[in-house]
Amino acid sequence: MLMDTFGRRAVDLRVSLTDRCNLRCSYCMPEEGLQWLAKSSLLTDDEVVRLVRVAVGLLGVTEVRFTGGEPLLRPGLVGIVTACAALEPRPELSVTTNAVGLARTAEALRAAGLDRVNVSLDTLDREAFHTLTRRDRLPDVIAGLAAADAAGLRPVKINTVLMRGVNDHEAADLLDWCLARGYELRFIEQMPLDAQHGWRRDSMVTAEEILDRLAARFELVPEPAAGRGAAPAERWTVAGHTAPDGQPARVGVIASVTRPFCRACDRTRLTADGQVRNCLFATGETDLRSALRAGADDEQLAGLWRAAMWGKKAGGGIDAPDFAQPERPMSAIGG
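The structure corresponding to this sequence follows.
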């Protein structure tokens, strides 16, 4: 198993398949983009599948989420999902995407064995979307969401980052829109993971502010904290609303900055170039790609991975006076 010295067990693997993206979200990367990883440094499709197999078969991972950058830009995504769905024991498989290309791939991904999707969507206003992402692709995202739902990639979850003075007034409208379509909305506090290193705590919209905006229109009933487990989102049921499965509709808030959930963290991360990161805010990495290409067997790879996770710190350290933002931005780490 992937244990650390604080007794936490990592069962949730985030696999970045590319650092490239077809949007340029202002809180993630500059308008001109970034210097992308060289193709030779990226794990091949077979290498990705092998490392996922090691994680699932030898290290006890039960959930695998493919991220980016934008994972739909990975040409071999469907084949990777197909191979991972055939693993024993079979992990739960999901993708975090901006949904720009989801309308044309949702059916194939579902047929390959994908279980569900998380879609990043910060606004319902086309002009605001263009401002935030520097691309006019909101209709494509909405079409992608509908295609995912029709393909059975449920629950369709939407991740939203509110930006002060840009889209923070849309919180209740976004929830209303998601409730009407059976999507599960989760707000995420903006984190210091932008390539420009321009994040400021005083400009971040906090969880408390988000809940205040929602409470002005909806009655929210907190779910018991004991049932949260290692899930990063605190959840509330929305009184008077029902999800497609007949259960009460829910909304979540991931308060990564103001209410960190490090104590129950169960994640391990693999970058597109084959580096293990034991924390989203880690400043160090463990190189599996070089070992893999040098001929390491599965047990050796598993040993390196175990050692990487054993050294995990108690928390991300955002509140520490000596906190240093990771050198890699979110697009290169993987969501």
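The first strand starts at residue 12 and ends at 16.
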